[in-house]
Task: structure prediction
Amino acid sequence: MKTAAVIPARNEQRTIREVAQATLEQVDRVIVVDDGSTDQTGQCLDGLGIDLLRHRQSRGKAAALATGFEHALAHDCDWVVTLDGDGQHDPADIARLLVAAEAWPGHLVIGARIRQRHRQPGIRRFANRFADFWISWASGQRVPDSQTGFRAYPRRLLEKIQPSTRKRHGFVFETAMLIDGARAGHPCVAVPIDSVYHDDARPSYFRPGKDVWEIFWFVFWRILLWGLYLPGLWRMLTGAARLHDPESS
Ligand SMILES: Nc1nc2c(ncn2[C@@H]2O[C@H](COP(=O)(O)OP(=O)(O)O)[C@@H](O)[C@H]2O)c(=O)[nH]1
Ligand SMILES: [Mg+2]
Result:
């Protein structure tokens, strides 16, 4: 099983080197996509032995992920892990995601921030719950953390589903992967991880107004176009979330 990690990074000079270095211990190939950073993000990675790809101008998180995926597929990777460049995901947990990946072939493995949920800022916790409900409906499965950027994608899913990479869809991309992926035969399985929110973190790039709105429209249209997708609603209401917790199994 050949593995890669794609780390989208926009102005992450404070954290990117440490994240990339720790990720190198977990996968065969580390791909950092520097999305038009105006700080030292790229230079911070000198001499690490990772693949650094650059967008000269910022094109958003969706385009950065797509650039990284293309590179990983061109290098014959079977599984592609994504994690954020700001240190909110612990690279040591990649091993747990990959154990789940082996146990659930063809599934989209998500690192679900369901431990210490109280650590998430109130407004984000509410927005996440709201998104989880609609995205679970639209994808016909219980998704315990739809907004997590910490995931492992099987190659087949990346070959089949290529969501919009328009800048305004920067944070819609991962929602599209969940919904369209499930419809294409790649449901998700969740691995519980900790919610990490550093007190001294930079402000989030996620815009609670605009980005929630874009995600909502995307999901709303999917549900509407599929005639309200009542089988999906039923499955989400009656089914349990697929969980894989390697330590407790
Ligand atoms: N390449 C790229 N990455 C982005 C952009 N916006 C956010 N990210 C990355 O996406 C990840 C999540 O962004 P963040 O602001 O931390 O969102 P939050 O953790 O949901 O609050 C981080 O690794 C960011 O560097 C962007 O415009 N381009
Ligand atoms: Mg973050």
